[in-house]
């Protein structure tokens, strides 16, 4: 998958914690508008942050042509949850802001997104 393919998909951020909000800022800074947040917190479902609605994770089953970005130190359990839902691996971008060495780089654009995140946290 190329960067161009990435830009033509709906971008969904898994969680709106500090990391999720930072990913939102990074994407918008680069003219990429995410579609929504997904979350497991039932208190967040239906709420709006940055103009994006929080939807339950299982709503992904009703969607097409998307990429889920998991920007959390808990990415392993979140990834497992998506795998249990049979979400295709190619539709998931994993990285942990705090443990770069544990990131999974099996799709080319992951490195670019991580570098943007790294730039955001390290250079500022």
What attributes does this structure have?
4 helices, 124 residues
Distance between the termini: 30 Å
Mean pLDDT: 79
Task: State the strand order across the main sheet.
Answer: 3-4-2-1-5-6
Topology pattern, helix = H, strand = E: HEHEEEEHEH
Task: Describe the protein.
The protein is an alpha/beta fold and about 120 residues long. It has four helices and six strands, in the order αβαββββαβα. It has helices at about 5, 20-30, 75-85, 110-124, and strands at about 10-15, 35-40, 50, 50-55, 65-70, 90-95. A six-stranded mixed β-sheet has the order 3-4-2-1-5-6. Helix 2 links the parallel strand 1 (about 10-15) and strand 2 (about 35-40).
Quick overview of this protein structure:
By secondary structure, this protein is α/β, with parallel strands linked by helices. The chain is built from four helices and six strands, in the order αβαββββαβα.
Helix-strand layout with pairing:
Blueprint: H1 3-7, E1 10-14, H2 18-29, E2 36-39, E3 48-49, E4 52-56, E5 66-71, H3 75-84, E6 92-95, H4 108-123
Parallel strand pairs: 1-2, 1-5, 2-4, 5-6
Antiparallel strand pairs: 3-4
């Amino acid at each position: 998958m190329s960067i161009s393919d990435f830009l033509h998909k709906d971008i969904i951020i898994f969680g709106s914690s500090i990391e999720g909000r930072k990913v939102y800022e990074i994407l918008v800074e680069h003219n990429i508008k995410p579609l929504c947040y997904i979350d497991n917190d039932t208190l967040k479902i239906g709420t709006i942050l940055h103009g994006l609605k929080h939807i339950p994770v299982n709503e992904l089953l009703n969607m097409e042509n998307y990429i889920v970005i998991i920007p959390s130190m808990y990415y392993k359990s979140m990834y497992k949850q998506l795998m249990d839902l049979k979400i295709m691996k190619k539709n998931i971008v994993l990285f942990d802001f705090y443990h770069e060495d544990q990131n999974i780089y099996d799709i080319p654009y992951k490195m670019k997104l991580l570098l943007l995140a790294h730039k955001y946290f390290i250079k500022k």
